[in-house]
Specification:
Distance between the termini: 11 Å
Number of strands: 12
Structural class: alpha/beta
Order of helices and strands: EHEHHHEHEEHEHEHEHEHEHEHEHHH
Strand order of the largest sheet: 2-1-3-4-5-6
CATH architecture of the largest domain: 3-Layer(aba) Sandwich
CATH superfamily of the largest domain: Glycogen Phosphorylase B
Length: 370
């Protein structure tokens, strides 16, 4: 049995790694997934910015594109990860390596380049449109990108065209499953024909989702809302306090509110929903598409997720409005005219079908390399 080692970290990178893991195990590969980054001080400092100041990250993103800084970032991570990566490669002795985070690339490139028999090396780029130069690897056997539009971008970064492969987006299989919507709603204490929203703050739980909460209380029609706070305990506590007063105000605000912290039930929660609202992270967008639900982006991480907003608009996968007042108005329009959401169905089905092909493409290329 061939052994494959996946280098990843938390958040969306882990979701992609889990999707790859499922696909490879299904095809009888032995898989090991390791995270050597999340405990790094740089990674830890990212979380408070993610939750509270996502627009500030654009400055860091743009600065890191400057050649001198880009070189410095590569050097820092190469030195900090070298011993750990070497040990992992020695202990695991893999037949192939897969990477879902660019911080591993400098180390792996320096190690694998000096081997007598190089280990096949696959680099999965975890951004669909806005790709940072650090995310490409000239030494990887393949750089997996979302679609063919990235061929030109790879060329600008001196990556041979034959090393850039459009794959689609890798999504965990449970998001493609069909669930019993009526039964799930019943189990939640939700009614069949009431408009239902799912609000997601991402795995770390961005506080930016709080800006659309007032629209829920201003709704004159009955509304069912699920909020997933991720690992953000402060956000969860704030919403728990808010929920305590909703029963007393039910006659004025007909809102049925359910709260979750981090949950593995996201596919089921998407099934019961008519619209998914949240931060425009690529995994959340494509997972929502897999469940054939429109997505409403109300915030994003500036810089690295800029292209995700364009993706939603250009492909007709949902709505984008980050201005709080305009977002509230748009949400009220949806509440009053829920049939508006029907127009997204054809585009969602088309995108879902494209991403479903990613599994076959991945396995075909892994078999070729091994």
């Amino acid at each position: 049995m061939k052994k494959i080692l996946i280098f990843t970290t938390t958040e969306g990178h882990l979701s992609i790694a889990q999707a790859v893991n499922e696909i490879l195990r299904k095809n009888r590969y032995q898989v090991k997934t390791v995270d050597l980054i999340s405990e790094n001080i740089i990674s830890k400092s990212y979380i408070p910015l993610y939750r509270n100041f996502p627009s500030f990250l654009q400055l860091i993103y743009q600065l890191s594109k400057k050649p001198r800084i880009e070189k410095g970032v590569k050097t820092i991570f190469q030195k900090s990860l070298e011993k750990k990566v070497k040990k992992e490669l020695k202990d695991s002795n893999p037949d192939s390596v897969i990477v879902t985070h660019p911080f591993y690339l400098p180390t792996l490139e320096s190690i694998l380049d000096y081997q007598k028999t190089p280990i096949p090396f696959l680099n999965i780029i975890a951004n669909p449109l806005t790709i940072h130069p650090l995310e490409f690897s000239s030494l990887a056997d393949f750089n997996f990108v979302y679609d063919k539009s990235h061929k030109k971008m790879g060329k600008r970064n001196k990556i041979p065209q034959e090393k850039i492969f459009p794959l689609g987006w890798l999504i965990r299989k449970n998001f493609y499953q069909k669930y019993n919507r009526a039964l799930l709603r019943k189990n939640l204490g939700f009614k069949k024909n009431i408009l239902t929203f799912l609000i997601c703050g991402g795995s770390e739980g961005t506080n930016m989702i709080l800006k659309i909460i007032p629209a829920l209380f201003l709704a004159k029609k009955p509304l069912q809302v699920i909020v997933v706070c991720g690992s953000n305990k402060a956000l969860y506590k704030t919403l728990v306090s808010l929920k305590k007063i909703t029963p007393k105000l039910k006659k004025i605000f007909p809102l049925n509110l359910k709260l979750y912290q981090f949950t593995h039930q996201l596919p089921q929660l998407m099934t019961v929903s008519d619209l998914v609202i949240g931060k425009a992270g690529p995994n959340l967008i494509f997972e929502t598409v897999a469940q054939k639900r429109p997505f409403f982006a109300i915030c994003h991480i500036a810089g690295q997720e800029d292209g995700n907003l364009d993706l939603i608009r250009e492909k007709g996968l949902g709505l984008v409005e980050e201005n709080p007042f305009k977002a509230l108005k748009l949400l009220q329009k949806i509440i009053n005219h829920s049939q508006f959401l029907e127009k997204f169905k054809p585009a969602l089905q088309k995108e879902r079908s494209y991403n479903l092909q990613a599994e076959k493409k991945l396995i075909k290329l892994v078999k070729r390399l091994l």
